[in-house]
Amino acid sequence: MYESLFEKNxxxxxxxxxxxxxxxxxxxxFGCVLLMPDSVTxxxxxxxxxxxxxxxxxxDVVITTSDKLYERLSDKLSSAGxxxxxxxxxxxxxxxxxxxxxxxxxxxxxxxxxxxARLRSVKTYDEIEKIKKAQAITEHSLSAxxxxxxxxxxxxxxxxxxxxxxxxxxxxxxxxxNIVAFGxxxxxxxxxxxxxxLERGDVVLFDIGAKADGYCSDMTRTFVYGEPxxxxxxxxxxxxxxxxxxxxxxxxxMTGREADGIARELFRANGFEREFGHSLGxxxxxxxxxxxxxxxxxxxxxxxxxxxxxxxxxxLEKFGVRIEDMVVVKKDGIENLTNFAKSIII
Length: 346
What we know:
The chain has 346 residues and is an alpha+beta fold.
């Protein structure tokens, strides 16, 4: 399964917390995973010994301390005859990498960041099932909260209710901080819930996601509390059309740039080039943002069974509209993991 990591390496050291979870299925605040062609070993400390040994499925557990970690790794690598060791260039700081090279001075290091990202971007059946569970919790929670949208309720109150509903429905926690935006606040892509209170005619934007069994979900829906103005209705329909176009044509082998371009060209043709300032989407898994990206900068083909968001949006001075689904990319199209209705009126 991990053959690609050993094309130029005798062993691989994994320090990033999300990557450690990917290879072991356990969350720890300290540790390292040593990958070798015939073995996986988790190095962690006494705080996680019971949980690690209980969770261990096909890998070994070594209990150590922070001051002995490099020594234990060096001994293991030397006894295995390893010479070239992979590491995560995008995870370790300059100071951490200097310390690593100083303590493991007999080895040559090569970055495996891209290889690990590619590995994680292709989801297994079990991973997709966990993402589906997280998405089901997200949709159930939003359904429960929508009836609470009444004149005078605040963004902060609705966000708190969503968090409660996530946890009550079985989520580990939030995949990211809730985005709940009323009226002009929906123009801010990553708005933080405030004391802004709901008024009739306001746009209401939710960008939310639960985390369950270690995996994230991500969904955006935009509504209007009351009757939408003609302008809001037109913008909403254009964003919806852009998303539907992408969902119709998206498939494995298409580049992230090509997918992004489907939505971007429609916006440009309708005079909204500047109002779509972010990329079309991103991968979702253990982290809420991971590869591959649906963006103008990604010229790599999308792999089959990656999970990505499709979230075109337009942001004007007095309101914004974004609609986001999460999909599995297949050879001949997509499997949409999002089943929440796209009705503008609450």
